Amino acid sequence: xxxxxxxxxxxxxxxxxxxxxxxxxxxxxxxxxxxxxxxxxxxxxxxxxxxxxxxxxxxxxxxxxxxxxxxxxxxxxxxxxxxxxxxxxxxxxxxxxxxxxxxxxxxxxxxxxxxxxxxxxxxxxxxxxxxxxxxxxxxxxxxxxxxxxxxxxxxxxxxxxxxxxxxxxxxxxxxxxxxxxxxxxxxxxxxxxxxxxxxxxxxxxxxxxxxxxxxxxxxxxxxxxxxxxxxxxxxxxxxxx
Length: 241
Description:
11% of the residues lie in helices and 32% in strands. A hairpin with a 4-residue loop joins strand 24 and strand 25. The protein has one domain: Hexapeptide repeat proteins (UDP N-Acetylglucosamine Acyltransferase, domain 1). The longest helix has 11 residues, at 10-20. The chain has helices at residues 10-20, 26-34, 94-99, and strands spanning 38-39, 44-45, 49-51, 55-58, 63-64, 69-71, 75-78, 83-84, 89-91, 105-108, 113-114, 119-121, 126-128, 133-134, 140-142, 144-147, 152-155, 158-160, 165-166, 171-173, 177-178, 183-184, 189-190, 201-203, 208-211, 228-230, 235-237. The protein is mainly beta and 241 residues long. The relative contact order is 0.09. It contains 3 helices and 27 strands.
């Protein structure tokens, strides 16, 4: 694919970064719209460092948390009631932003979640389906690497299906696809998809499907689980958070 030249003027890049660093407010959302970002009036947008992001879409009721670093990404999109927590690193290498028409993008479907302290390399694009989530801490999506056969750098998309649960400290590599309504167990490594796309519990290095999974969580209608089970009483406290 031929090289694209769509770099934003430096004053626009700086102005967008300054506006994104402001505390959450209706004025901030108005300013973000003025500098070219699509931010719904009901969204919540907290202070973060956003640098050289061409398109930013934050849908109705969506939340973008504080202290995130987002850089060199072509497009970030949060669907209705989607949520990104705090202190995440979301980035792409500028080469892929320039050369890959569909690369350098992060897309969260409606009610999808990325919690806190994760590293998301979007060079080949990362997509979470509706109600999917990367939970816990320190999970890494690494979408670019070296193609040894071609002796060339390359990137491939990472797809997390609808209503999937990615546990803490997982690694997802370029080309990986987690089937919808699946769980990626904590500490697992998901590599390029090789045929089997059956929902279930995926675990190990590399991750393999090891069991079926089910539960009320997969059919929830809200973004976040706010209930707490108290085992001593076998009792669930509603809206505990």
